[in-house]
Amino acid sequence: MSTPVPAPVLAIDIGGTKLAAAVVEPGGRAVAYERVPTPADLDAEGLWRTLASVLDKVVAEAGAPGLGGVGVGCGGPMTWPAAEVSPLNIPGWRAFPLRERLRGRYPGLPVRVHNDAVCVAVGEHWRGAGRGRGNVLGMVVSTGVGGGLVLDGRLIDGASGNAGHIGHVVVDPEGPPCKCGGRGCLEAIARGPGLVAWAQEQGWRPGQPVTGVDLATDARRGHPVAAAAMRRAGRALGIAIASATHLCDLEVAAIGGGLSQAGALLFDPLEEALRTHARMHYARQVSVVPAALGQMSGLIGAAALVIAGDRYWNAD
Amino acid sequence: MSTPVPAPVLAIDIGGTKLAAAVVEPGGRAVAYERVPTPADLDAEGLWRTLASVLDKVVAEAGAPGLGGVGVGCGGPMTWPAAEVSPLNIPGWRAFPLRERLRGRYPGLPVRVHNDAVCVAVGEHWRGAGRGRGNVLGMVVSTGVGGGLVLDGRLIDGASGNAGHIGHVVVDPEGPPCKCGGRGCLEAIARGPGLVAWAQEQGWRPGQPVTGVDLATDARRGHPVAAAAMRRAGRALGIAIASATHLCDLEVAAIGGGLSQAGALLFDPLEEALRTHARMHYARQVSVVPAALGQMSGLIGAAALVIAGDRYWNAD
């Protein structure tokens, strides 16, 4: 628990494609923003130096204010709340002591680290599509499928800080194997590379180096296999959100990440599957919307771990 | 929020088969207990009078102590927290103002009503199989499949008091139709009458009036169809618990209700499906156990809505 911090907060978003940082005012407005591509070939210390230079730059850009704390969203897995991080897509960091290093760099300030998709959920609850609602699932649909849960107005951490993993809800017990070792998880079907692989098997641009964005573009142009792949993802998302809505009595699911920009191609089949399966009276009112803060959700949420810690931070 | 109540609490459990009540001490011990079969053919006022006589009897049996409050678990659906109840299996009560009537009968005392399966979850968290753990799913597998969620040490209500409905997590999107209007929900497969219907279609005691208990008995005796039906239920339960564990980062799932007494016939296939699908590192530690308080879970949980309201009651 903490009282709101009156000073701006340094917010950090660490993913496989970019290292981003912002200085966020207590009201939620970002007053400075910097990002660099995540270096693919640096070791742990090289990555740390790259991050540190981004942080110095964004703090200078904000006019070097007195900071109230540091909030971080980072790709998982990690220990929590100690935040020794081993992001799947950043092989240079394995059990890297991110929280400890940031504490050393910003002595005396609270430093709070959570999963990047959890920060998206927090950002959308605090200042985005879930604002004013008590029960919100935030999701990231991209290379993977991640998420975070705000229930009864508070961030849910679960036993080890891993609550919110909507990507590993089972949507088809006989479905494709998942990287987690299971089978038929939402992520196994709806992650961008999974969709691309499925479409290529069906004859869409076989053998070419393509991405989920290419797939969405071709689907929009009317390519039948590409469109079918988007329907497949939308349907899997709708089933998983129906299960989560029934289990958690959700009001809003806010979806961010690259694939969420596919619009009706994704959201129409999602809605159809959702309304087929979310049939309990209380579940019919759930709404599924794109993340309102776009690319900034994760940074705003990371800031909220500090600024609105009474709702979003339950650890030491 | 409330501070612990030092006086004993009147706990009530209202279901389609029985009306039960207990006087529960602040430490969680029941010092008096009464039950009657739920009258099948009474109107709303007749049911109320039957309940009232049970309450008078159990309070007298306890020595007519000064009560600290009234906690109730009642079959759903209901409005919450107002508790106008319309229990599926008690047709005489439709929008019956249970909380209001109890407040009139016990003026000045807190009266708190929740779903009966939610009370099982609370009871198991407070004094049962989930004691000392922060993240617990309590379940009832019987005529229906219900549940409740305790996460980060607190009961989750959700938007309308309906969080915990594990019975409507989708375990097979192409599965049998569910009474909720959806398809392939856990409850559609694993509820007692659903299992019996499936087994009868496969040739087990066709046309006879039989129950889930008969099915479990025959399965134990080695009847292949009856055993297959139990495996089918166990597998569906395992898949749903895997999804819930991934989504909510659970530590314990405690299963009560008639079918939970089938032992290894149900729990072995449950474990097999759970371990197949719950593969994220953090999910491997989840344990699934029978409810430790047996038939008393719901009453103890109902009492805890008042006695430990800081954790289990978030409404007015």
TrEMBL record, chains A, B:
EC class of the enzyme, as a word: transferase
Keywords carried by this UniProt record: Kinase, Transferase
Classification via InterPro entries: ATPase_NBD (IPR043129), ROK (IPR000600), ROK_cs (IPR049874)
Source species, domain of life: Bacteria
GO molecular function terms listed in the Swiss-Prot or TrEMBL record: N-acylmannosamine kinase activity
Known EC number: 2.7.1.60
Pfam families, alphabetized: ROK
The UniProt record lists the keyword Ion transport: no
Gene3D superfamilies assigned: 3.30.420.40
Cross-referenced SUPFAM superfamilies: Actin-like ATPase domain
Similarity comment text for this entry: Belongs to the ROK (NagC/XylR) family.
PANTHER family for the chain: N-ACETYLMANNOSAMINE KINASE (PTHR18964:SF169), ROK (REPRESSOR, ORF, KINASE) FAMILY (PTHR18964)
Protein name in UniProt: N-acetylmannosamine kinase
Naturally occurring in which organism (per UniProt): Actinomadura macrotermitis
Gene: nanK_2
